């Protein structure tokens, strides 16, 4: 349903860049919690795939596990995650050793986390932090080239490169979030996972940044796994949407089909809770899947 991407070749006709199959993640606590249960999805080159679902349904756990950023007590209990490189090779992400995994992150797959704008180092300038990432991942790059590249990515996300000399507290929330997106783009990854990248921002800034993400995707041809509980937003920007409910992906469809003929009752409930794509979002969507009395609703899956 994305409107800014009409010249873009239909991503669904293109090769996949990531295949997640039957991924299961368990928190090994006293009462083990299966946060992700046999989840499967495929991300195509240049695609924006939305992952929607209420708070606590397992979206973040899935994103972290894909990039092996999960920490104990989380454990991947089964399944596979395969990256399909541009050059034709396949990489089994769950089998990667530490060093190749470190290289893989940022260069092939980068993440913009929930509240990432607060994860910039407060005592270092933006320029230093971009330079540091470049140095860590490409030691052969000259200082001049690094400076050039840092200015380039900031410009791309709509931040004046004069801000390279700024400290994070000197930037607005929107600028900090754009800077985090610039950081994620630094090494030209083939996949970006964005976990609620704009939720903390006001609606106008949020829209601007989303428009920017769509434009960059068209220009630079990366794929995005875009995680949010905001289904209306996904209907506007995503090519396809996966709906997650209690650790399972219960539906995965094009945004259009999902909007017109959702199959799963939970998806229908989510969709039915706002009057139109452009209308006001209802309290239901803002609050997550709770009924008016605040009770968690139940669907058999
Ligand atoms: N460290 C942990 N130990 C035990 N259980 C956890 C831990 N972290 C998350 N969980 C559980 O795993 C499930 C999935 O959580 P997760 O954060 O992945 O959901 P989410 O859909 O990303 O939610 P949100 O939108 O609020 O970020 C939840 O039931 C949560 O309680």
From TrEMBL:
Domain of life: Bacteria
Keyword vocabulary terms for this entry: ATP-binding, Cell inner membrane, Cell membrane, Membrane, Nucleotide-binding, Translocase, Transport
Keyword Cell membrane: yes
Membrane topology, as annotated: Peripheral membrane protein
UniProt key word Membrane: yes
Coiled coil region boundaries: none
GO molecular function: ATP binding
Subcellular compartments: Cell membrane
Protein name: ABC transporter ATP-binding protein
Origin species: Kineosporia corallincola
